[in-house]
Amino acid sequence: MNKRIKQAGIVFLLSFSLAGCMTDQTGTTYSASEARQMQTVRFGTVAESRLVKLEGTQGEVGTLAGAAVGGIAASSIGGQRESAIAAVAGAVAGGVLGNMAEKKITSKQGVELTVRLDDGSYVSVVQQADPAVNFAAGDKVKILTQGTTSRVIKVQ
After folding, report:
1. CA atoms in the 13 A half-sphere facing the CB of 99
2. CA atoms of 154 and 127, how far apart (whole Å)
């Protein structure tokens, strides 16, 4: 029973670690490094809005956590020699599955916004969809750009 508690704890830590990897990329969320930085502001009108999928991350967290869980879970199979082989196979399989799980867990709904700027030119920005904000053709927006990062926000 003690081994099952350890395995459950590892699964919990894996889930907690993956949740910590998620970041919010909506138009109204800023990282701490973006605070107090000047941005270029342009105004325009949404010409088109469509939902897109933002791929999740494939980092080391999911792979390592999956490998740990798989190795521990498989190590109880067979005798000493068999359990060592099973632990290695379990770690490899767990690593692959953990990597896939991280990608799926961290994927998000995005929105691609094509905006006709007030000067007549067009730009497109993809950002994480915000459930509280729906963009539609004709909405007045402002585009804030800092370096290579841009975000679209509805004008109030």
Report:
1. 11
2. 13
User: Could you tell me the pTM of the whole model?
Assistant: 0.57
Structure tokens at 33: 């490094």
Provide the greatest CA pair distance for the chain. 74
User: With 90 as the cut, is the pLDDT of residue 4 above it?
Assistant: no
Tell me the C-alpha to C-alpha distance, in Å, between residue 150 and each of 61, 99, 142, 145: 28, 29, 10, 4
How far apart are alpha carbons 147 and 135 in whole angstroms? 24
Q: Which two tokens stand for residue 40?
A: 């270029």
Is 60 exceeded by the pLDDT of residue 22? no
The answer to whether residues 56 and 105 touch, using CB atoms and an 8 Å cutoff, is yes
